[in-house]
Amino acid sequence: MTYVDGFLLAVPKANLERYKAMARMAGDIWKEFGAIDYVECIGEDVPYGELTSFPRAVLAKDDEVVVFSWITYASRAQRDEILAKVMADERLKGEDCKDVFDGKRMIYGGFEAVVEL
Q: Which domain of life is it from (predicted)?
């Protein structure tokens, strides 16, 4: 079974094009190092729930959109190897990647797939 890193974050609408460009670059880097899939999704139907919701989870403001993304790997071991390479890659440390979103409100985690159809 594959291994998946999942992410949820809020991006200011004013930075959306910058975010998309950064995500394309990041996706190319992840794929270059061996990720199977790299997917970024902009929230379109994400209502603000009374108790829980995607916007509540990341404390999204009125001028922000929710982004849901995931990266798929062949295994946890492969993910750990790829992630180490990505985090050391200088291309993601440039000005194009700074202040695009508030990383303190990003939710992320690694998941082992148990059903794949």
A: Bacteria
SS3 state of residue 97? helix
Mapped onto helix, strand or coil, the DSSP state of residue 14 is: helix
Full domain range(s) for residue 72: 3-112
The set of residues, in sequence order, having a beta carbon less than 8 Å from that of 5 and lying 6+ positions away, is: 70, 71, 73, 79, 83, 108, 109, 110, 111
Share of the chain above pLDDT 70, in %: 97
pTM of whole model > 0.90?
yes
User: What's the CATH code of the domain at 53?
Assistant: 3.30.70.100
**Is 117 within the bounds of a domain?**
no
pLDDT of residue 24: 96
